[in-house]
Structure formats: structure tokens, C-alpha cells
Amino acid sequence: MSQSTRMLKYLRTGRSLTPLKALHIFGCLSLSQRMGDLRRSGQRIGSMMVRLKGGKRVKEYWIAR
After folding, report:
1. Higher pLDDT, 2 or 16
2. Neighbouring-strand partners of residue 48
3. CA 63, CA 65: separation in Å to the nearest integer?
4. What is the residue-wise DSSP string for 17-56?
5. In the predicted model, what is the mean pLDDT of residues 3-7?
6. Is the backbone of residue 38 left (phi > 0), alpha (psi -120 to 50) or beta?
7. Nearest to 28 by CA among 48, 42, 41, 11
8. Is 14 helix (H, G, I), strand (E, B) or coil?
9. Which residues have C-beta within 8 Å of that of residue 14, sequence separation ≥ 6?
10. What is the pTM of this model?
11. What are the C-alpha distances in Å from 56 to residues 3, 8, 11, 12, 25?
């Protein structure tokens, strides 16, 4: 099963992904590329920039309803 497919199954449970979560859970170094793959395959992926506790801003992804 591909990384994108595994990530899609994870997102379909109602959870979201950030680059750090994707690295820890899936070993993925390029979350934006995988989300682009899913979008090109017709999946509705929502995203927005979020601020982490330390002040760093990252993009968070989820399944758009």
C-alpha cells in the first residue's frame, strides 16, 4: 500500500496531518507532495496554516467535507 493510500485511510478517520505527524507515523518527508497526489486523484483535501506551541507555522491537512 502506498504512502498516499495509507495517509488517506488515516485522514478518513477524522484526524488531521502535519508534516511532523506524517514523518513520525508514515516516515514521509514530503507531506505536501503526497497531499498533492491525493488532490490530483480527486480527493478533497483541506488545509490551513497553524501555529505550533513554539511559534512555528506549519500546514495542517484533513479531508474536506
Report:
1. 16
2. 60
3. 6
4. B-HHHHHHHH--S-HHHHHHHHHHTT--EEEEEEE-TTS-
5. 95
6. alpha
7. 11
8. coil
9. 63
10. 0.91
11. 25, 25, 23, 26, 20
Distance, in Å, from the CA atom of 11 to the CA atom of 58, rounded to the nearest integer, reads 17
Cell readout for 1 is 500500500
Q: Would the pLDDT of 25 be above 90?
A: yes
- The total number of residues written for the chain in this structure: 65
At 40, which amino acid appears?
R
Instruction: Judge contact between 63 and 11, C-beta under 8 A.
Output: yes
* C-alpha distances in Å from residue 25, one per residue of 32, 41, 42: 15, 22, 24
Q: Which residue has the cell 508534516?
A: 19
Q: Which three cell numbers stand for residue 10?
A: 488515516
Using alpha carbons only, how large is the chain's radius of gyration in Å?
11
